[in-house]
Amino acid sequence: MSRLLNTLLRLFLIALLVAGLLAIWEQIRGMDILSRFRRGDKTAQSVVLKEIKALGKLELVKYTFKDIVEHEQVNTYLPNANAILIVEGEATGCIDLTKITADDIQATTDSITVYLPRPELCTWKINHDRSRVYDTRFSFLDQSQLVSDAYKKAERQVRQSALDGGILDQTRKNAHQLLAPLLEQISGKKTGLAFRD
């Protein structure tokens, strides 16, 4: 009986030692102290072309945003985890020129009217190279998931901020300022632009 107890005690101490070493390793893993012992990095890549797509969207305006995002993950038993990010994002307004048909161009002897498709929000994204995690708290188990969820929330906010900031109206204005003079120069006729409803 005492032999079994000694064996169980040893296994418990070994498990405790391993858990302690893992905890210490997690603490020092990200520190710059270990960088002295590295000899360099090697990376192997194999890039495969997945898709080729023709583009016809004319980008006419880009909005850039900087924001502080606080994301909280509500937990049942543990304290709520939260992450604070400082993010920079951008949104682009454009017009899809592939949607223009021959019926959208009406010409007379001295003028041309072009009916353009409605402006749209082409892209919105977070610039990860200009964004950073400021702080995380109580993210015991899955800090990467917490930060990923915070970035998704920030990306949705970039989209909404662009729409609220009038990016579609600005795209419309820029189309008049940029395209009308260009088309007049090419055609030699007075050119007017209109947008479909």
Structure description:
This protein has 197 residues and is an alpha+beta fold. It has one domain (54-195). Helices cover 36% and strands 31% of the residues. It has three helices and seven strands. The strands form two sheets. Strands 1, 2, 5 and 6 form a four-stranded antiparallel beta sheet that branches. Strands 3-4-7 form a three-stranded mixed beta sheet, with helices on one face. Strand 1 (57-73) and strand 2 (81-96) form a beta hairpin. The chain is elongated and about 110 Å long.
Which key terms come to mind for this protein?
four-stranded antiparallel sheet; 3 helices; 36% helix; alpha+beta; 197 residues; three-stranded mixed sheet
Mean pLDDT across all residues, rounded?
82
What is the general shape?
elongated
The main β sheet shows up as:
4 strands, antiparallel
| Secondary structure: helix percent | 25-40%
Based on DSSP secondary structure assignment, what is the total number of beta strands?
A: 7
Task: Please state the CA-atom Rg, rounded to the nearest Å.
Answer: 29 Å
**Overall SS class:** alpha+beta
The termini sit apart by 86 Å
Which blocks of ≥5 consecutive residues have pLDDT under 50?
Answer: none
Task: List the secondary-structure elements in sequence, H or E.
Answer: HEEEEEEHHE
Query: How many domain modules?
Result: 1
Helical stretch tally: 3
* Strand residue percentage: 25-35%
